[in-house]
């Protein structure tokens, strides 16, 4: 019987220095010695892709798209070669492959290409010979044989797509946090790292602002039934396993989106504006219709584009954020949570309900407080947070 096959992906900070690459090599060896076959996907060393983009922009503010891909793909090549050297130095046989060598075919859309097919024969041959295969993330090759890249953050997509094509037992995304938390731990004091989460809940968390996993990565892994594990390359631990589609009962977490803008326009303009937004491919984070107004909430760039489309002058833009409770929302929730937020002197500007989630629109300055109040009331059980602590947040 074949040994289990694991695809491991190490992001920019995980391979950000020679010391980090040596430490990753040791982690890879540990997994190999535990009896696994390994494919390792690497990102460029942290800051490198930005540095290359800056160089290109010094030549042309909109660089030639084909040549930008040639340039950006070098970042991942540096990481993969250094990791292969580190493994070799430690006495382990590995091979590094570019997107082209690994036969990762993409469409023709330079800078934002989509993987169309992976011919896994090359990788399989190396795996059959017990060789660790290192693949450059974020890149592929189009039908013309030109290098393409998958869009920023694309190494996760490479890892998940490879895992699906190779029928891997698990795809492990190594990052700089211990796993998926019930809320952003930099904002919510009592956020907890989860052992396990289902794809339905994880998809909603990512869609509503959790940054630990990109939405396309979650969706692709879920569709292909590839168990995903998020774990830290800086500390030991088993991280968070994302598996299965059955939503976890109850409420699972809080997702945040900060630094957004809101504009309200007369409700009768909704249809026309929606059509234009769709035509221009502008991404809107939240839309709310009431009797008189139609409110749109999105990233500042997107709102500025919408404002430019409006014929009216002087549309007021207010800084807001979204706090979303993810999970099963049952009826008393709306009034109960509003009461809770009011008690903490946080005013809810709007709210909207979605499948498996409930979102509050809140003025920017109150976002962190709102996230803590909602998290401690709905996510943390009563025995882990004392009433005193809860009241401290409220007042
Ligand atoms: N190096 C690329 C980026 O910085 C791809 C990735 O890291 O996933 O966006
Ligand atoms: Mg990333």
Within CATH, the superfamily of the largest domain carries the name Acetylglutamate kinase-like
The secondary structure category is alpha/beta
- What is the helix/strand order? EHEHHEEEHEEEHEEHHEEEHEEHEHEEHH
Mean pLDDT: 92
**Second-tier CATH architecture of the largest domain:** 3-Layer(aba) Sandwich
Can you tell me the CATH class of the largest domain?
A: Alpha Beta
Q: Please state the overall shape, judged from the principal axes of the Cα atoms.
A: globular
What's the structural domain tally? 2
Write structural notes for this entry.
The relative contact order is 0.10. It is globular, with a radius of gyration of 23 Å. It is 36% helix and 25% strand. The chain has an 8-stranded mixed beta sheet with strand order 3-6-2-1-9-11-12-10, with helices on both faces. It has a 6-stranded antiparallel beta sheet with strand order 14-15-13-16-18-17. With 395 residues, the chain is an alpha/beta fold. It folds into 2 domains: 5-176, 3-Layer(aba) Sandwich (Carbamate kinase); 251-394, VC0802-like. Strand 4 and strand 5 (115-118) form a beta hairpin. The termini are far apart. It binds aspartic acid and magnesium ion. Magnesium ion is lined by residues 11, 153, 156.
